[in-house]
Structure formats: C-alpha cells, structure tokens
Amino acid sequence: MFVMCFYLPYAVLEFVLYKDNDCMLDSIPVLCRSYAAIVYTLVCSNATVVFHTVSTWLTVALAVWRWMAVTLTSRMRNMCSMRYAQITIVCAYVSTAVVCIPNYMTFSVHKVNATSRLSGQPVVSYKLDFTVVSHFVSIRTFSFWIYSVLMKLVPCFALTALSMALMRALCEADERRRRLKARPNSQPGAASGATSAEPPSANQRSSDRTTRMLLAVLMLFLITEFPAGILSLLSGIFGDTFFESYYLRVGDILDVLALINSSVNFILYCSMSRQFRKTFALLFTPRWLQHRAPVMATEANATIATTCV
Q1: Which of 182, 188, 199, 304 is the most buried (most CB within 10 A)?
Q2: Which residue ranges are recorded for the region named Disordered (predicted)?
Q3: pTM for the full model?
Q4: For the purposes of burial, counting CB atoms within 10 Å of the CB of 149, is it exposed (0-12), middle (13-18) or buried (19 or more)?
C-alpha cells in the first residue's frame, strides 16, 4: 500500500507532466524538471525501496510461520501469536531503514544548465546523479551489493527453500489423509470410524488450501523479484556501464512487475483465504460495523490468536 501511495504520484509526474524531452544538455534531449519534482523523485525512490523491502521480508516471515504451523503445529503454536507478529513487523521496518542507509547516500539532486528546445534560451534544470561520497568511499558499489543480495536474492533463495518445504509438507499431509481414510474401511465399525475422521479431514483441506495459496504467492514473488536481483548484482560487478546501458532501460518494467506482484498478492489472499478476509474486515472496517457483526469479529479474533495468517 505504501509503495502504491508513493509510486502513483511519481508515475503521473514522470509519464504525464514530464513526458516530453523539452531541454537539451550537451546535445542530448533531456527532461527539464523543477527542484521540487526531482526531490520528490529522490524521496519516492528511497521510500519505495524501503517499503518494498519490508514487504519482501514480511512475506518471508509469513512463509516461515506457515511452515511452522504445517510441520511443527503444537510445539510452535506459541510462536504464531499477535505479540510475535508485532515484534516481527517492527524489526522489519527498523532493520530495513538502517540497512538502506548506503542507498540514501548514493544519489542526490544536482543542478544543471540546459537549453530549452522551444525557445533556445538557457534554463536551469535538476537531475538525480551519484553523490561525491559514493565515488570516494565506494558506497555506490556497496549499495548495489546490499540491494541485490540482501534485499532481492537472499529472500528469493529463502522463499524457494520454504516453497520446497511446504510442498513436502503438503505431500505428507495428503499421504496421512489417505491413510486415515483407508483405515476405517479395512476394519469393523467403518461407519463410526469414518464419522470420527471427517472433522480432521475438513480442517486438513482448509490448511492445504491456505498453503497452496501461499505457494502461489511465493512463486509469483520469485518471478518478479529474481530478475531485479540479478540485474542489480551485475550492476555492482560491472559498474556504471552495465547500470546505465541495461538496468536503467528495464527499470520501469521491473517497477511495474513489483506493483503487479503486490496487487496480485492481495487478490490471492482475499480470494483464497477466508481467514484473511475476516481478519482484513476486522482491522479495516469501522467500529460501528464491527458491533453489528459480533460473530465475525469473534471468529477473526480467534484466527489471529492461533495462526496470525
């Protein structure tokens, strides 16, 4: 949500208000931007990196919790509580803001003297460029490595491992369910055995459906985040030439993929998880509506206390 709030005004600024190359700088068409516009671009760039990274690691945390709920159930039930969820969220925001400090020091606003393509008169414009500190202390290269490895590739590998673990847990759950269904049929009193085995089977189907939803979210995440991580890593290895020749050319595509990933994730959660819909309604509906639906609020509170999903 925060990424969208920052990116939508930036998209209007970049592709609507400043869509024409109306200035010349060293015989190259460039965009003439005001100081306020370029400052917002810098703030938007840093803010979207922070909030998107927070979202990335919260996705990893959610997958870890789901893996514990599927494989360790009773032993780790106390870990899936609102208190631990709040601690995880706070840690994600604080640690991301600290880790992104080299990214804040990489770019800054620079004043340039350009020429208007319409009148031919000199004009003052502003652009984003690398800071002096980034050249002398190699913060720029360090920032690329942090962004590519810690913010992109490590979460991708972690989610891949969790996806494999969840798939294995799904197969084991299906095997246990088949054994549970086959056991009463091979013994006397099959009718009573089938009746007692039905509620666990329904609960297991609900758990499997939620796990499949999370697997879909994880695979979509890998498709959208892994290319950005590889390109950032190559930019850190090969330097400015690769960054300007390749990364900047596909930067808008990577941004669109990240936004699509966030939007589709929300749709997947709402469409495939009844628990998520109830919890979302409890958190974001007005209080007077919650008083009119006490049953829904009670059920959602129970869901939060046991799963935090």
Answers
A1: 304
A2: 181-208
A3: 0.74
A4: middle
